[in-house]
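Why does residue order matter? Because the sequence determines the fold. Keep that principle in mind as you read this record.
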Amino acid sequence: MFQVLAADSIKEEGLQPLLQQDGIHVHIGSVDSESIDIQKIDALLVRSATKVTSELLDRMPSLKIVGRAGVGVDNIDIAEATKRGIIIVNAPDGNTISTAEHTFAMMSALMRNIPQAHSTVKNGEWKRNQFIGNELYGKELGIIGLGRIGSELAKRARAFGMSVKVYDPFLTKERAEVLGVQLSSFDEVLAETDIISVHTPLTKETKGLLNEKTLSQTKKGVYLLNCARGGIIDEIALAHYIEKGHVAGAALDVFEVEPPGDHPLLKLDSVIATPHLGASTKEAQLNVATQVAREIRTYFENKPVANSINLPAMSKEIYEKIQPYHQLAKEMGKIVSECHNKGISELTATYSGTAAELETSFLTKALLAGFFENRIDVKVNEVNAIHIAKERGIMVGEKVTGNSFGYANTINVKASGDGETFTARGTYIDHYGPRIVSLDGFNIDFHPSGNLLYIQHMDRPGVIGHVGKVLGDHGVNIATMQVGRKEAGGEAIMVLSFDKPLPEEMIDKLKSLQDIVTINSIIL
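Structure:
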């Protein structure tokens, strides 16, 4: 009998996929309940109250899978669970509709001054002329990040007669047409839309995405919404632009620090806020419970789960063989994603030599996991990578070739979309480690790790020297440098590594140098 413990007051209604399954016994209670022998529990379902720590895992030697009824997994020691071969699953889309609806409600309330007007009526006042609002009809909505929630918001906005412009590096023109939105640049969304809503994960790229500089590029009178992650909008900068009248108002469900306390934004009449309620509906809570219950049942049936956020368990022998190539594939995915952050409709992996003798489908999924990391609002790993790619309209290809380009093995990656392609080739050398030996058709040789800078430039005398001088003048030491070119005087690349990530202002200085085409920061 497969033993399941449902903790944290998860309602029985959401546990029906397990309660109706023969061979599964569900205990409803706490990990500290004296009536439950947790040493025999195979699966644990939690929300946020139960902390799945190393100590708890020591007490649960039979545990095989943990289901988080929700998206966030901050209360679970994922690294320790993975080390023990315990799969972690969550419910990434169980609250999609809930959050999209909350965002739309916040947008409507913001445009019509509903919270402010409500407050005055409750105080016995009747100030109709003070709360003249704006219609949504005919307005242009800018969405930054068109994942699940952003897509649902776009549907609702179009139903209200709004036009929608979207900035998403992974959105292709074809998919934008299907969704009825206009694919735009980040600068276009800032300058041309009446309302901007952010729907990205909080990463090094998106932290402070709307800041002192970018907020100045927005249309005067713009409204801003953040029901995604606190920190995407620089809150101090936002308060400044509202006070000076450039930003007309903001609706916030999340803050960088929660609860926000005595926050300057909360003192502004044109700001409305809620206490992180995006997923707080009865339906969403039921949906996430049902989703993870189904995942547990799927695991019980010996089928692959769709929403695992860590590596599935495998034998030590297979793991040792595949691990070097797995790491190489994942790092190559990150590199391709950072170097070619444009719309992608197809990603193809081609294997040769000893790499082709392994379970290449697992390597392809690792490649996708690296490609999507820090780019979308859900955790991606080898289990759900294909599902995520399909959801995003990306076709995934896998090939094997006898041409190993003079190496014992190679992994070749080709990313295509909107008429552009980017390629990368890597190899693993015993006792030497992984190497990237080609980028976008340029021969090169570097170790994929650490803090890297990928620079495309024209092959002119002095370019490398100018780069070195700018870095040297600012006390930045270059750890390694590799260069590559196709022909003298044409396009060329250089890959530099540093002990620490370069600050944005330093990268901006390098971008301003003559003959520099593009610069991409890569942190592996």
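Residues 361 and 398 are 8 Å apart (CA to CA).
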